[in-house]
Amino acid sequence: MESVKFVVVEISVSLRAAIEGARRVFCLSHPSADGDAVGSLCGLRHALGAAGKEVTLVLPDLRPRYLSYIPGWEEILSYEEVPETIAQKAREADLFFAVDFGKWDRIPEALQALIPRDRLVWIDHHADSEPLSTKWNLWEPTAAATTEILYEFLTSLLSGELPLLARIALYTGLLTDTGGFRFRSVTPKTFRIAAELIRPPFPLEAIHHHVFRNKPLHQTRLQGRLFEYLHPVEGLPVLMLPVPANILESFGASWEDVQGLSNQLLAMEGVLLSIVLKEYGPSETRLSIRGVGDFPCHELAARFDKGGGHRNAAGATLYRPLSEALIYTENLIRTEYESDILREFERFTRSLELHQHA
Question: What end-to-end distance do the CA atoms of the chain give, in Å?
Fold first, then answer.
């Protein structure tokens, strides 16, 4: 297996030859796609398309409407909607990319079966990932986003300037996966890459408008209603928020309308850990877990039926009703993580005293 832990500018001879020889490329990312997933797919679409490739973009489920401003979004195919079309595209493809996920159980088995591992290029930054390809694995767990890795990969591949639409897609993924360059994953290298991506001409204000300002009124009203369900964990800097499916239905909303709620909870005073629990069915609850400091959200997520992600941002699934999931999660935190949370909250609070850094 030709696997590298840290991405380097040099692309291996075999991978470069495979890309140059490919006419049709199939690119896949994870369900419930975020800005980094869609930005990665669309960045590949515009960069490889400029190199003369026919590129197919695929998600397991529906395209997230809130990211429809990213150029190339409209070309993404949903396996839920058109499985036969996607199966045909996979049969025709010469080369495959899997981006922004690192475990095959994120993808439906029927879709997994379409991906030949010996013709797959895997690119990811999640800390708990496992190599997906038998040949080309590009994994950088310290990268702020998969789009950060892709920038280096694509500029090396193309030996120069990326097309504007590719830069827009990659920057959007970088911006959203760092919370506007606020998360601890951000490094000087992240800013250097961002600076290269936004070289004029570049619609910087338009992208920031879509990411941070363009929120529909019904979403704000829904979130205000949901805050009535806020569940502080007594004695701990932890906020939990259960989201009943019937509340979404009553507002005519979708799960996209609660995107970012866990980050909003984390922005409240005195909070180290936030968990949003979403009722996806009578016996399925999905969790969005966010933290600050060194609390290992990805380790907590791994304690559920399915889960993983980053130290400060992770997701999980628990096959229990919402009410049981809330009790289970609080009990898990109290019995397994209470002392760690209190210790990390004290350390993190001290770190906020900026005068000590002088």
Answer: 47
Residues 6+ apart with CB under 8 A from 261: 223, 226, 241, 243, 276, 288
CATH class of 217-351: alpha beta
Helices and strands in the chain: count of H runs, count of E runs: 14, 13
Phi, psi at 169, each rounded to 5°: -65, -45
Closest CA to 150 of 164, 165, 135, 140: 140
Of 115, 123, 137, the closest CA to residue 60 belongs to 115
pTM: 0.90
Handedness of CA 309, 44, 169, 156 (dihedral sign): positive
* The domain defined by 2-212 carries CATH number 3.90.1640.10: yes
Chain segment 79-126, per-residue pLDDT in tens: 999 999 999 999 999 999 999 999 999 999 999 999 999 999 999 999
Backbone angles phi, psi at 158, to 5 degrees: -90, -5
The structure tokens listed for 92 are: 């025709």
Domain boundaries, the chain: 2-212, 217-351
Cβ proximity of 174 and 209 under 8 Å: no
Are 35 and 132 within 8 A, CB to CB? no
Measured CA to CA, the distance from residue 270 to residue 104 in angstroms comes to 37
DSSP-assigned letters across all residues of 326-337: HHHHHHHIIIII
- One fold for 2-212 and 217-351: no
Strand partners, 95: 25
- Contact criterion met (CB below 8 Å) for 287 and 307: yes
More confident residue, 356 or 101: 101
